[in-house]
Every structure is written in C-alpha cells, then in structure tokens.
Amino acid sequence: MPKPRPHHPASHWQSTRRLTLGLLLVWFVLTFGVIFFARELSGMRWFGWPLSFYMAAQGLALAYLLIVAVYTWQMRKIDRRQQDRPQDRKSQ
Q: pTM above 0.85?
C-alpha cells in the first residue's frame, strides 16, 4: 500500500508538475515514435492502407485525446485530495 503524501499546496503543485511532465513525455514519445518509424510502419498494411497513414491520421489524434482525458481525470483526483484536507492557514 503506498504511503500517503502530506496534503499541502507544495505537494499539490508537485503532483501537478509530475503528472504534466509524465504526460508530456508520453506525448513526445508517441509523436516522435510515429514520425521516426514512419517508413517501417508504412510497410505494414491495415485494411489496404499503410499503418503509418492510420497512425498519423487517426491513431495519434485518439492518443492525444486519451492524454487529455487522463490529465483531466488525474487532476480531479489531485484537486479532491487537496480540498478534502483541512485548511491550516494562519489568519492575517
């Protein structure tokens, strides 16, 4: 069972940055991988069309949509965790 992290603004932004950087890495690897291996992917056929065509036309768009969905889902979890903790701000 993972150890719970302390819930304070610094951990909220750390979680947000970690999520954002992780998803940006996934985005980069997907985009670079399809472009870099386009020649190899064009040798494979999918319903008579080169696989690189499908990956560039539909596959990456769906992958990007999935990245946005994962970001939204995880950010809601992070924000709920932040809201559930009692606020211990000093009155000014």
A: no
